[in-house]
Specification:
about 170 residues, alpha+beta, 2 helices, globular
């Protein structure tokens, strides 16, 4: 088990985007974590007193974010100390299915399993459940660890003041 303090220590996310409350089971290649959804979360602040059930549905992208944060906890554990100073990147997702809406008051249980690992890249699969009922399935998601600093980040800009075609630097 990993407590809330342990989750905060392992993930860089903070309010309002830290979306895993605690880990309830951690095996050699699988993890179960929970996220309690409450009406006090910032995405509900704009809703008035007559919000409908659909208005109160937890956003799908946040459900995926919470699941991938759980996968990130497992990825860090599996990678061990070899990823110090590295950034975890999530790549493609496939076979993602939403089966029912998550509402305030629900406790989501994320199940993530390692499907395969090759060097610093891992592939996970799993699902999320509320009261034993599947609300999300993830067929596959790719996670890779890469250096945290860009090569040459300390090198001065060879073209100071240049503007890109998109209008930025």
């Amino acid at each position: 088990m990993i407590t809330t303090e342990g989750v905060r220590a392992a993930l860089p996310h903070r309010y309002p985007m830290l979306l895993v409350d605690r880990v309830i089971e951690l095996g050699p290649d699988a993890i179960r974590a929970i996220k309690a959804v409450t009406v006090n979360e910032p995405w509900y602040a704009r809703l008035g007193p007559r919000a409908t059930r659909e208005d109160l549905a937890y956003p799908d992208f946040l459900l995926i974010e919470s699941w991938t944060q759980t996968a990130g906890l497992l990825a860090k554990r599996l990678a061990g100390d070899g990823v110090e100073g590295q950034v975890m990147l999530f790549g493609s997702m496939s076979d993602v299915g939403f089966h029912r809406r998550v509402l305030p008051g629900d406790t989501v249980e994320h199940h993530v399993r390692l499907e395969r690992a090759v060097n610093d890249t891992m592939i996970f699969e799993g699902e999320s459940r509320v009261d034993g009922e599947s609300v999300l399935t993830v067929g596959r998601v790719t996670v890779a660890f890469r250096p945290g600093e860009r090569p040459g980040a300390d090198t001065p800009d060879p073209h100071p003041g240049a503007v890109s075609r998109t209008g930025g630097r």
